[in-house]
């Protein structure tokens, strides 16, 4: 039995500038926060950095040809702020020219360019002035967004402001796992607000320039489940994770308010941090943040199985084993414990839970997107496994059966949601290529295309071949 996808459903793959481009200091590009952070001893596994990565900056034409070979209808990529406006300053024509050439190549290949303005690579010079804790960064981001629209507004119709602001605020400024590697509750809160304000200001400006643009944001989400649905402590753990991960961004975007229960939870553990956060919210900010968006991207990798008491069998840790001091990215984290539930796991120890994706899409659609007239796209979903490359008849092959099954299961979960009435119009696998995986360095491979980092040879894995087959058939 085959299951067809809706006629308007788009199949794509996603990447991010710092993770694939390389050419870190070529043609006028200057340091981003990830160039600086990756050079901090112990911050990244193996001391890896993105100086070369997949060398996409020089190989983009061949990479677009590979996308054509797979049958991709759309390609989600990010532009590098440090390449386009180095140090957050004047426009760098060479950096802009790269993205013009990339977009022209995609359009010539009949691949829809899906542009994300921020995938975590802020200019380091701006971080030295406070980064996202500094309200002035919102204005600098608006300048950068305007530069990209000046260059590409005639050719790019879909604009995503931010990718996963939870990561670029709480994981980065509170948890310390991502650049700039700080461990401050106050900084995480301030960063989250200024990121959302930058989103809102950019949507307003781009809509003023061209009302026909498709404008939106991409959020990463979890599905939080109680280990014991009858246990009050477990249910409270679920409420707090859902509130700090999902609702902290959904509520201001769709409802014009931060979740009051979570604000009070955080106040109970750090009243000064909340005071700084509340003082940073100026009159009109939430109105700016909550204006209409056309599209929300949903990123989903796994859910959470939670208890309010420490379990006998704690869940396997799924964070990079780096040497730097980090802390929980959640400001309110006490009495929240992940519990083992026996699901399969990826090479990062992330659970494989496709049915959670169906429930997530239904929840975001019913409670937020549908009432607002916003449509959904799956903008990231993927898995790292310990791939083994073999040479067969002079061709490099990767028989990644687990990733192939992961892809099929999650596409099935998207179909389940669509058949239940969710307006979800596309799926982007993460990632098109093996790449620099942030604090994991090059230790984990997510791609449907293998990259040999020594030779830069690209090889389509079995999962990529299966994805191409599904795209061609438009069915599971």
TrEMBL record:
Residues reported in the UniProt entry to bind substrate: 19, 119, 163, 301, 430, 437-438
Domain of life: Bacteria
Pfam family, one: Glyco_hydro_1
Keyword Plastid: no
Catalytic residues (positions): 164, 380
Catalytic activity: Hydrolysis of terminal, non-reducing beta-D-glucosyl residues with release of beta-D-glucose
Biological process (GO), any one: cellulose catabolic process
Gene3D superfamilies: Glycosidases
CC per GO annotation: cytosol
Protein family: Belongs to the glycosyl hydrolase 1 family.
NCBIfam families according to UniProt: BGL
PANTHER family found in the cross-reference section: GLYCOSYL HYDROLASE, LP05116P
Descriptive protein name: Beta-glucosidase
Annotated organism of origin: Microbacterium saperdae
